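Could you help me review a protein record that somebody else here produced? This is what I was given.
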Amino acid sequence: MPRRTIKQVETEYREAVTTLQNENTQLVERFAALEMALESMDWRRLTMEAEHEFTREGLRQIVNLARIMAIKNPIIKRGIEVQQLYVWGQGWSHRATDPDIDAVLTSFFDDIRNQAELSHQALQEKEKELLTDGNLFFCLFTNTLTGRVRVRTIPFAEVESIIFNPEDRKDPWFYRRVWTRETIDLQTGGILTETRTAYYPDWRHTPISRPPTIGGYPVLWDCPICHMRAGGYSDHMFGISEIYASIDWARAYKEFLEDWASIVRAYRRFAFQLNTPGGKQ
């Protein structure tokens, strides 16, 4: 290896430090721009009922970000896996003291049509969705002839609002769902899309008078919803993703690891071999 003078080494060192500083500055600017874009969104809604609450669009942005972090960020992903295993790792069981009720419960949970939502794997997935979305909407599709119930979950993105008892904020009456229905044209093979709106009653809301429509949209009385939520406050309409509180920390740690990797790369450029003349001394 050819020898280099001290001046050459100093010059290379200054160039490497300047490059590292420029890379760190660009990284900080990118994160700052991203955080500014998030913070500048109008996520607060001023109402007569609450001083501040995330808007529906704000919650949608939080959920999208939380879902991405749950897939991409190893810290967030591992935290979710730990909670999944802690809650559902050993499975669960049910039993009623009354044999007739126990038979109904067993038939309900063992129904192959309900396994998509109630199997061991499905329950672990629901735990993950509750962490990322902050809300689960179990829809109970009831057969009016046989009384059998099929359970499905409605995506949080499709539930636009909740209508409460005007005299009691803790008493939900209806859930307004807006979704896109896709069907296939059997002749052309094309996909036909149609936007639909409907109201679903809360599973505890059983009034004597049951209007068939609200604002011209149907009310699906045979499909009540059980809403499970996490995060936020009790007077909020929806729950808030519990991952939301961890995103800043996960980003900061990711930035720390990236900075450390940059430093190690810079050290690699400083490595050189120094040969000196002379004897044993």
